[in-house]
Histidine kinase (Flavobacterium aquicola), 371 residues
Amino acid sequence: MKKKISFYAMHFCLCFVFLFLPYAFTSTGSVFSLPKLAANPHDRIYFFIYFLLLLFFYFNYYILIPKIYFKEKQISYVITLACFLLFFLWISNVFDTPESNFLDFREHKKNHFNEMFRPHSKDFNHDRGPVSHSLSPSELNDQNHFGGPPTQYSHTILVYLIGVISSLFIAIKNRLQKVEEDKMKSELSFLKAQINPHFLFNTLNSIYSLAIKKDDKTADAVVQLSELMRYIITNANDDVIALEKEINYINNFILLQKTRLGNTAAIDYTLEGNPFGKAITPLILISFIENAFKHGVNPNENSEICIRISIAGDYLTLFVSNNKVQSIQSDSGIGLQNTIERLSLLYPNNHVLSIDDNSKMYLVTLTIKVG
C-alpha cells in the first residue's frame, strides 16, 4: 500500500512540474510566474498543449509500446507516432494562429505581412499621411513576420520527441528488469523444488535408522518430522519468513538429529540474541547445518559438531564446524550448492560467506542481513 501511495505521489509531482515548466522562467525577471489561463491566450496555449503531451506520454507508455512496439510491429508504431505528431502540430497551430492554414506557410506569411503593414484608421493622419507604427521585439516575434511555420511547432516537436524517447527508455528498462526478475524467480523455484525432497529424504533416513534399532524415541522423531514438514509445506515457498520460525525449524532439526545419534556424536548448539522482529529467506541456513551432520558423523569415530547462531542488530551470524570423518553418506548432495546459489541471488550485497575446508575440519561462517 505504501509503495502504491509513493508511486502515485511521485507521478503527481512529476506531472505538476512538467505542466508548469514553461512558466518557471519568465521574461518579467521573476523566477516563477503562475499561468494566467483566464486572461492570457499564450498561457492557455502552452498549458493545453503540455497537458495533451502529458496524456500522450502515458498513452504511449501503457498502450502503444506494450500493444504495438513490444508486439514486433515497429513500422506500425512509427506510423502511429507520426500521426500523433501531425495531430499535435495541428493543435499547436490552431491555438497559436487560428486564422492561418496548417500546411500553407506562404499564406501564413502573407497574412502576417498584411496585418503588420495595413494602415488602420487610428494610424492614418489625413493631413500628414500614414503614421509610423513601430513594433517591439516581442511583438515582432509574436507576429512571426519572417514567415514559415509558427515558433510553437519546433517547441511542440521537441517536447513530443523527448516524451516518446523517455517513455520508450523507461518501458524497455522496466521490461528488461521484469525479465531478469522472472528469470531469478524461476531459478529460485527450481532450487526450492530440489531442496524440499532433499530434506525429506535425509530426515526419513534419520527416522529409518531409529526404527531399525527399535528405539523408543522413534515416535518423538516422527512428531519432530511432522513439524519440519509443516514448515516446509506452509512457509518454504514464501519470499521471506519470520526469523523466529526459521530458528524453530532449525531447533527441531537439531533435536531430531540428537534423537537419532544419541551418544555417538558430541553436538554443541548455542543460540544468542533475539530473533523476534527479524525476517529471512526460508531454508537459507539449514543446508550448512545439515551438511555438518551428513559429513561429520560416524559412530565408529570421534564426531564433533559445533553450531552457533548469533543475532546482533540487523545481522545474523551462523558458525558451523565439524571434524572430518569417514562419512557413511558419501554422496555430495545438492543442498549446500543450491543454498550458495540462492545466497548470491537473494542477498548479493547483504551476506558474507566464508568456508574453510582443511584436512581435519570443515568450517562455515555466514553473516547475513536479517533486519
Q: What stands out?
A: The chain has ten helices and nine strands. The mean pLDDT is 75. The longest strand covers residues 304-312. Strands lie at 124-125, 129-130, 241-242, 266-272, 279-280, 304-312, 315-323, 351-357, 361-369.
